[in-house]
Design goal:
By secondary structure, this protein is an alpha+beta fold. The chain has two domains: 165 residues, no CATH class; 153 residues, Alpha-Beta Plaits. Helices cover 66% and strands 12% of the residues. The protein has twelve helices and eight strands. The chain has a five-stranded mixed β-sheet, sandwiched between helices. A three-stranded antiparallel β-sheet has the order 5-6-8. Strand 3 and strand 4 form a beta hairpin.
């Protein structure tokens, strides 16, 4: 399940929670309603019903809407307790807004709403004996809600790790080719819509196979990590770096024409010229081949842009065929 699908599922669950809440509260008020002094309570319940429709059924798109709705729910319950007295069927309704918080909001919201519920309902009952019974009534529900929140936190943490694995190259920590293609497609759509340009730079570590054969794959992996860090140092915050596979990296340069891409390659070469890696006592001086392509002057489609940059990379490799990593 994707993050958006998970959010939609949780929103539907919260809507059903509040539908149940409104139905149960309405049933309780209908059974307990008398003719004296209930006007304010009915008005508060009616206002809460409108707030529920306005905030929850509109999609819960604003961060403030759900906390506000939960706060209003607790206020209506406390007002009902003050008017009719404590009752298991009434006090127990507070579990529903607390559950909504546990499903969606950070723990600090849950703790704050729980304290507010205890305080408001404690003030609504007339004596300390009733307040003590109220706390005892809350304890099992609070324990269950705490478990729900803990499980949700564990799930959120697992989802973040899975999402990270889906978009990052685990060796170098930069984006993988799948994530790069997503960024490229998005940038291409914007460029096509607004008439902008963008460029893609392909960079390949020279002699990766030679490094692996002479010093082992650990040294080759270390060189790739050093190269990734060096590339990130010369990139802008808007640029996107990804490892395409082997020793090749791709860099997406939004709003960058052919001249700007050439300057980017120049900065990369200057940075790599000073890049070394110590492998088993041998200091290697690394080198790279590079190629670039610009939309729309070179190609018209994202896949063609990458292919063009790769062809330019191959031309650079042929021109610098004697270029190899050196070590001393």
């Amino acid at each position: 399940m994707t993050e958006n699908e998970d959010i939609l599922t949780t929103s539907r669950q919260i809507r059903w929670l509040y539908a149940l809440f409104v139905a149960l509260l309405g049933a309780f008020l209908f059974l307990r309603l008398d003719t004296g002094g209930s006007g304010k309570l009915v008005a508060a319940f009616f206002a809460f019903g409108l707030l529920t429709v306005a905030l929850v059924w509109r999609g819960d798109k604003d961060n403030w809407s759900l906390p506000l709705l939960n706060f209003a729910a607790v206020c209506v319950i406390s007002l009902s307790v003050w008017r009719y007295g404590a009752a298991a069927g009434l006090n127990g309704l507070v579990v529903l807004p607390l559950l909504a918080v546990a499903l969606r909001q950070p723990p600090v919201f849950f703790v704050a709403l729980l304290l507010f519920a205890l305080l408001s309902q404690g003030m609504a009952v007339p004596d300390w004996s009733s307040r003590y019974q109220l706390v005892q009534f809350f304890l099992p529900g609070v324990a269950a809600l705490a478990i729900v929140m803990f499980q949700r936190k564990q799930k959120d943490s697992l989802d973040k790790r899975v999402a990270k694995l889906e978009i990052l190259d685990m060796l170098t920590g930069v984006h993988n080719i799948r994530a790069f293609n997503n960024f490229l497609q998005h940038t291409h759509r914007l460029a096509k819509r607004h008439g902008n340009v963008y460029s893609v730079v392909a960079v390949d570590l020279v002699g990766l196979n030679s490094i692996n054969q002479k010093f082992g794959r650990e040294a080759g992996n270390g060189c790739l990590q050093c190269l990734a860090e060096a590339l990130q140092e010369v990139m802008r915050t808007t640029d996107v770096l990804a490892r395409a596979g082997g020793g090749e990296f791709l860099i997406l340069l939004p709003a960058t024409d052919h001249t700007g891409a050439g300057l980017s390659i120049q900065r990369i070469r200057e940075r790599i010229a000073s890049l070394t890696y110590d492998a088993k006592g041998s200091v290697m001086h690394l080198a790279v081949h590079a190629g670039m392509a610009t939309y729309p002057t070179d190609q018209q489609e994202p896949a063609e842009i990458i292919d063009h940059a790769d062809r330019q990379l191959e031309l650079d490799r042929n021109l610098r065929h004697k270029s190899q990593p050196t070590w001393v």
